[in-house]
Amino acid sequence: MQIAHINGANIHYCQSTVIDKPVIVFVNSLGSDFRLWDNVVDILKDDFHIIRYDKRGHGLSDIGNVPYSIELLADDLAALLEYLTIDKAIICGISVGGMIGQYLAASKPELVNALVLCNTAPKIGNEEFWQQRLEAIDKNGLLAISDSILLRWFSAQFKASKLHQLEGWRNMLSRTTKEGYMATSVAIKNANLHDKTKTIIQPTLCIGGDEDLSTPADLVEEMSRLIKGSHFKVIKNAGHLPCIEQPDILADHMIKFFKENNLV
Questions:
Q1: 195 contacts 78 by C-beta, under 8 angstroms
Q2: Is 214 helix (H, G, I), strand (E, B) or coil?
Q3: pTM above 0.85, yes or no
Q4: What digits encode the pLDDT tens for the residues 13-62?
Q5: Burial (0-12, 13-18, 19+ Cβ within 10 Å), 234
């Protein structure tokens, strides 16, 4: 187990033993830990120095002081890079992880070589949606609303044919701390990154899933139009988490993007 004490919290991370290759940092979604990326990492592990971590309030990382902001979560990522003496990295973030990537790339561009923004947007959901979710979790806990969350996470085919895997992801979700999940939800609720996202200058790949009910592909495409020169791709038969449902296709898009931009 690798733990970095940064910004007043213990952050759980792992990094590959390949250290003489381009660096990619993977940033997770709400309600998940860094195992989310296992299948993508298996494809990329020989050609990249890969870093994954559990953002505060998730996995084995501390909860820290609540509530959170996207700025705080991006500062955690910047501090982790400094802790690991990484000067610059490709940031691959999904959902709130993509919001963290947007904020870091805009605020500290010297740290970011390129961005892969999966199933994310400058603004996710509205006040009413997040307030209702926060009240439901506060009253009944995460497990009680897990069906509605999993409905938004996965495609119809996955939900029908991968029942055992579905229950495994439900376990990951429901074992996220209530405090950490709610604090991160507040960060998403309060964030509107449009002005920052428009200033991103790094090569950027934007990925959507054709069955994503949380950040529909049209919303991801709108984000892509804000970022000059960015590329937009839709992955079929994928909901909010293509790294789980379609890791081969996601990795293929990433590799092609990296080669086109001389990042490998």
A1: no
A2: coil
A3: yes
A4: 999 887 789 999 999 999 999 999 999 999 999 999 999 999 999 999 99
A5: middle
- Kindly report, residue by residue over 184-200, the tens digit of the pLDDT: 999 999 999 999 999 99
Q: How many residues does the chain have?
A: 264
Beta bridge partners of 115: 91, 204
CA distance 143 to 63: 19
Q: Which amino acid is at 75?
A: D
| Pair 91, 108: CB distance under 8 Å | no
Structural element, H or E, at residue 10: strand 9-15
The three-state secondary structure class of 156 is helix
Distances (CA, A) of 188 to 110, 134, 174, 231, 232: 24, 12, 19, 24, 23
**Six-digit token string for 117:** 């923004």
Residue 82 C-alpha from the chain's centroid: 20
Task: Please report, for residues 55, 67, 121, 173, the alpha-carbon distance to residue 227 in angstroms, rounded to integers and kept in the order given.
Answer: 25, 29, 11, 31
Domain ranges of the chain: 2-260
| 221 and 209 Cβ atoms separated by less than 8 Å | no
- DSSP character for 116? E
Could you tell me if 29 and 240 are in contact, meaning their C-beta atoms sit under 8 angstroms apart?
yes
Tokens 């092609």 -> residue: 256
Identify the CA nearest to 7 among candidates 99, 90, 73.
73
* Number of other residues whose CB lies within 10 A of the CB of residue 229: 11
What span, in angstroms and rounded, lies between the C-alpha atoms of 176 and 171? 9
Give the CATH number of domain 2-260; options: 3.40.190.10, 3.40.50.1820, 3.30.70.270, 3.40.50.720. Answer: 3.40.50.1820
- Helices and strands, counts by H and E, the chain: 12, 8
| Chain centroid, CA 40 distance in Å | 13
